[in-house]
Design goal:
mainly beta; 4-stranded antiparallel β-sheet; 13 strands
């Protein structure tokens, strides 16, 4: 191969790395773009142009032999079926044992070419492990009584919830609206 052809190939490869991988459908992007073996897609929700995918994954038995059940993760995608879909990260999964529900927080941020933050999404998600909990609500940051309902999803592998926003508390409610468990924390 001539030097000129090698340079062209190198430039094309570098451009591909800069633009990232795009997939024709969200389903394909989930299957190929999430760096873990997805066990089940639990919930998909769009917020401010970003699609959050709540999923369970099978952890690598060699890396985490003590975890035997699927773990919970969230991935962020942008795009559509006309222009393609891209996993815009971050990617990761978490696992904790919790009663009556687990709670994880993750975020997605975008920046302009000058490094200024243009978008920040906070996502709160987890697994509901107590059958009496039928609703999850999060407390809006800076408020003492502004609770909002999270999306609660029944999936093959369990019951889960997901919501967006900055929060300073979370609670699980029964069908009758009785508080079964709640947590509050200080925020800056």
């Amino acid at each position: 191969m001539r030097v000129k052809n090698r340079i062209i190939l190198l430039v094309i490869s570098f451009m591909f790395l800069l633009t990232g991988c795009k997939y024709s459908t969200l389903d394909e992007a989930i299957k190929k773009g999430i760096p873990y073996k997805v066990h089940e897609v639990v919930h998909i929700q769009k917020e401010k142009g970003v699609t959050a995918v709540l999923y369970t994954a099978i952890p690598d038995k060699k890396e985490t032999p003590h975890i035997t059940e699927p773990v919970l993760g969230v991935a962020f995608f942008k795009g559509n079926d006309e222009e393609g879909w891209e996993n815009v990260g971050p990617n990761g999964w978490t696992h904790m044992e919790g009663e009556p529900f687990t709670m994880y927080q993750d975020f997605y941020r975008e920046f302009d070419e000058d490094g200024n933050q243009t978008l920040e999404l906070h996502v709160i998600f987890g697994e509901i492990t107590n059958r009496e909990v039928t609703r999850i609500q999060t407390l809006e940051r800076g408020s003492e009584d502004q609770y909002k309902d999270a999306a609660v999803v029944d999936a093959d592998s369990g019951r889960y919830y997901l919501t967006f926003g900055r929060t300073s508390g979370i609670r699980g409610l029964s069908e009758a609206g009785e508080v079964i468990h709640q947590n509050h924390w200080e925020t800056n």
